Amino acid sequence: MPNFFDPSVRPLPPGISPEHPVLAFVAGVIDIFMNAEESGAAADPRQLKAQVDRLLASHPAPPRVLGVRVERQAQELVDRAWDSDEGDVLALDALRLWPNCCEAYLLLALETGEEVELTVILYTLAAIAGAEAIGPEKMHEYTGSFSEHEDALPFLQALAGLSRAHMAAGEPEAAMLHLGEVLRLDSADALGARYELLTLLIASGDLANAQVLIDAYEEPSVPMLYGLALIAFHESGDGPAASSRLQMAKTVNPYIVPYLTGEKPIPGPGPLDFELGTEDEALAFAPLVLTTWKVTPGAIEWLQKEVGYVSGVRAKPPEKPKRSGPREI
């Protein structure tokens, strides 16, 4: 999408006019949020959402399908949108039919690219729409088990997306707040928010809450085990405690070590499905775990020393002395 936040530059994709419905809608949404910010008043996000709803209502919605609830018709549009070249237009149509279509906002948020401010706005709208679609009674009823309810999953995804948008915007405190809410609402943590939250807690130096989070899940996953080693390194340096925890982590999953030391480049996003203790797990978590190790002074150098990796060459183990006589049994 164009950079609407630079008033002097408004580039448009080839073949798309300023009257394009999605661009016009996004520009209107940004005006609503920027006017609220410029006014200096701490606007209630729900009030801003109400203004966006009025913006949506100012343009005609697609024709209603007889016998189909508006929520269902909007969802069918979004289902088509994910695989369509005009997915953003279909998502906008879904919102004009039903302003609380959380998944439509999720799709638009994913289309924003590097427009971080816009991404935060759209994920904020997605979260509000998701909460309003669920309603206060079910919000209370679902608390602790959100991932078990299909109608609640988009709201969880909106909160997780909003946390990542805040991270991209350089706002880790807001990101941690939203990740903590994901865990409160869904104790099983189907989205894996605990791993991102653990990374942020350790990076911010909040080791006490990082330990609490690890203890709460008690799982032998790469983020948790290597997080324990990093916590020990924070607390006592490269002493026996940190070395012991690192050895335990390496025993369970050694495959991530070359990615942390720099011996191997991280090839890109890892697989979504994996078993604990495998190289697939290492690939899945390497970008996240490496982030925490990089911001911890001396941590990667300590790891390189512990595994014998120096200047891009893994040190060879000492050779065993050759026997000159018969092999002893």
Question: Secondary-structure blueprint of this entry?
Answer:
Layout: H1 21-38, H2 45-57, H3 70-81, H4 87-97, H5 102-110, H6 116-134, H7 136-142, H8 153-168, H9 172-185, H10 193-204, H11 207-217, H12 222-236, H13 240-252, H14 257-261, H15 279-294, H16 299-307, E1 309-310, E2 313-314
Helix pairs in contact: 1-2, 3-4, 4-5, 5-6, 6-8, 8-9, 9-10, 10-11, 10-12, 10-15, 11-12, 12-13, 12-15
Poorly predicted runs are 1-16, 314-318, 320-329
Class based on secondary structure composition and strand pairing = mainly alpha
Fraction of residues in helix = 55-70%
The geometry reads as elongated
- Report the order of strands and helices: HHHHHHHHHHHHHHHHEE
Rg, Å, rounded: 25 Å
- Total helices: the number is 16
Biggest beta sheet attributes? 2 strands, antiparallel
* Strand order of the biggest β-sheet: 1-2
Characteristics:
single chain, disordered N terminus, two-stranded antiparallel ribbon, mainly alpha, 16 helices, disordered C terminus, 329 residues
